[in-house]
Amino acid sequence: MIYLDHAATTQMSERAAEAMKEAATVTFGNPSAGYELAAKARAVVNRAKITIACSLGAKDTEILFTSGATEGNNFCLFSGARRAEHPVILISAAEHPSVRECALELKRRGAYVAEIPLLTDGRIDLDAAERFLKEHRDTTVVSVMAANNETGVIQPIKELGDMIRIYAPDCLFHVDAVQYYGYFPINVREWKADLITASAHKFYGPKGVGFVWHRESVNLPPLLYGGGQEEGLRSGTENVPGIAGMACAVEELEQGARKDSGSLYELRDYLKGLLLELEPGITFHPGASSLTVPGIINFSFPGFSGTLMRNRLDVEGICVSTGSACANRKREPSRVLMAMGVSPEEAECSIRVSLGRENTKEQMEETVRAMARITGKR
Ligand code: PMP
Question: What pTM does this model have?
Answer without folding.
Answer: 0.97
